[in-house]
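Researcher: Here's the sequence for the chain we discussed earlier.
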Amino acid sequence: MVHELADYERAPEQCHLTEEQLTSALFGASPALFGHVAVDAADEPIGFALWFLNFSTWEGVHGIYLEDLYVRPAARGTGAGRLLLATLAAICVERGYRRLDWWMINWNPAARFYAAIGATPMDEWVPYRLAGPALHELAGQVPAAPTRPDA
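Model: Thanks. This is the structure I predict for it:
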């Protein structure tokens, strides 16, 4: 379904995730990615939410960052997306997290749904990304760790 989401977001060529990578991220020795899958009455997957913890230095507590929420087109309007978000909200409340954050591509019609559940856009924050050659160039600016002669 992650590749279906990439198609929906008009960027299928950018999605390189493999089943092995996802399995490792979710179920490996130290998972840092968490997920929920929505299924229909026949137990067929119809949607998913992938998330990880973030931390607010101002609040002093963790929160959830929703990386991806996707509901297959045939299942939209069934309440699956709302239930996935409600599940994450319940985790936040249960664990004392104070917020659930996500980004949404600006043309996504889900904006109306998010507004209906009380979510507000954070248009005063500008997202930035460091990737590819620029990421490698900056990483190369870290000086080598000094070595100890007795090590």
